[in-house]
Design goal:
This protein has a single domain, classed as FAD/NAD(P)-binding domain (3-Layer(bba) Sandwich). The model has no long low-confidence stretch (mean pLDDT 94). It starts with a strand and ends with a helix. It is α/β, with parallel strands linked by helices. It is built from 13 helices and 19 strands. Bound molecules: flavin-adenine dinucleotide. Flavin-adenine dinucleotide (FAD) binds next to helix 1, strand 3, strand 12 and helix 9.
């Protein structure tokens, strides 16, 4: 096997392209967008993903764009009381042998694409894939312009609305998770009167939460504001958000949140969608990766991290085993981990949104007591996520 086609130049598709090109495969990426780019928002890159990016040789290239948060915090929406304040920075780097960084998506995307180009990966833009056909040892893609392209293996890294997943497993729209997220960035230089802590902070409140963290060495403040909603009427799953509506949704919140929002000039609104565990991730010579096979609520900040781990795992298995054997092993290795993190992300929604009235408050207070008396309880939850090292699992 030599030539691999990847559908989708998101973080998952480009990570796979880089890993496979490094391993010596010829790689072509088909991306529907006319211009390469990522949404203008932040990304938390936890140590498990950083270990792969380091293995790709990208840690030093990303360092100038990174912000190192000092703590992971959970704070009360009104009083600002800390339910959790767990060290990140040097402490977490020592514990997990890799840093916890905040990166602007566009920066990570740019670094990935340059690394792909250096290795001769062909990235075709305005290349919308409509379907594939399997014929013996080959898979042929048909694009919207009716051109056809063949390869020895097809990777569907085409996100939550994956056409490759649909052809493989049948038409089924993703489920609206009854939550929407506003995302935006604000230049820190405009925030004279607002003091945002250098942390990854989740502000928790009834039926909604608010996340703040810095990007680009502290130049920008990123926010994600999540609100529960019964329905989503738009055709698109992302649209320009209304800043006034956003401010109204978080009116009366702690001044660190409300004053920050006073400086927001624009925002994007996303419907948060999900899917149950898929029955399979591969069929014949076609395999799925990233959000195409395990979309998740962003409440563990692990969606892109899982796609990066997938990419590394798939590339290493394809080097060691025959194609069909590698795809079986890939699914066996990756599905339980991704499914577990999908579930953890969903569980966090209830905690962050104080579901269950008094019971919800009790749970938050239990987190507070545990984090003060025995930080090990918090670590026990996070160690399997951040401490995991796919580059060692597959030596
Ligand atoms: C609010 C929010 C916050 C998040 N925060 C974090 C975080 O802090 N940390 C983290 O790890 N994750 C986070 N995530 C999750 C993360 O953004 C996603 O899991 C990740 O971007 C998925 O990458 P992907 O490459 O699998 O899919 P996508 O990014 O969706 O990329 C798919 C690509 O395929 C292309 N495509 C689609 N269909 C076709 C087609 N037919 N033909 C050709 N091309 C096609 C698309 O144009 C796109 O470029 C967050 C998500 C949200 C919504």
């Amino acid at each position: 096997m030599n030539h691999i086609a990847i559908v989708g130049a998101g973080i998952g598709g480009l990570s796979a392209a880089l890993a496979l090109a490094t391993a010596g495969f010829k790689v072509t990426v088909f991306e529907q967008a006319k211009k390469i780019g990522e949404v203008g928002a932040g990304l938390q890159m936890s140590p498990n993903a950083m270990k792969v990016l380091r293995q790709f040789g990208l840690e030093d290239k990303l360092r100038p764009y990174a912000f190192v948060p000092q703590h992971a915090c959970m704070r009360d929406f009104k009083t600002g009381e800390y339910y959790l304040k767990s060290p990140l920075g040097k402490t977490s780097e020592a514990r997990y042998s890799a840093p916890y960084w905040h990166l602007h998506r566009a920066d990570l995307h740019k670094v990935l694409i340059l690394a792909c180009e250096d290795l001769g990966v062909e990235v075709l833009l305005d290349a919308s894939v409509e379907r594939y056909t399997e014929n013996g040892d080959q898979v042929t893609l048909t694009l919207a312009d009716k051109s056809e392209h063949s390869a020895d293996l097809l990777i569907g890294a085409d996100g939550i609305r994956s056409v490759i997943r649909e052809q493989m497993l049948g038409k089924e729209s993703p489920t609206f998770m009854k939550q929407v997220a506003w995302r935006g960035v604000i230049p820190a230089s405009e925030l004279n009167d607002v003091h945002i802590q250098p942390d990854a902070c989740v502000w928790v409140g009834p039926n909604r939460h608010f996340v703040t963290y810095y990007l680009r060495g502290g130049e920008l403040v990123n926010f994600v504001a999540v609100e529960e909603r019964e329905d989503w009427h738009q055709e698109s799953w992302r649209e320009e958000g209304d800043v006034e509506e956003l401010k109204a949704a978080f009116a009366g919140w702690h001044p660190e949140v409300s004053q920050l929002l006073d400086h927001a000039k624009s925002t994007f609104l996303w419907a948060l969608n999900g899917r149950d565990e898929l029955p399979a991730w591969h069929q014949g010579r076609v395999v799925l990766l990233g959000d195409a096979c395990h979309p998740m609520l962003p409440f563990m900040a692990q969606g892109a991290a899982m796609a990066i781990e997938d990419a590394y795992a798939l590339s290493q298995l394809l080097v060691k085993y025959s194609v069909l054997d590698a795809l079986d092993r890939y699914e066996l290795l990756r599905k339980p981990r991704a499914t577990n993190i999908q579930k953890m992300s969903k569980d966090n929604a209830a905690l962050y949104h104080m579901h269950g009235g008094v019971f919800g408050r009790m749970k938050l207070n239990a987190v507070k007591i545990a984090s003060r008396l025995s930080p090990r309880i918090i670590q026990a939850k996070l160690d399997p996520v951040y401490g995991y090292d796919i580059t060692k699992v597959l030596i």
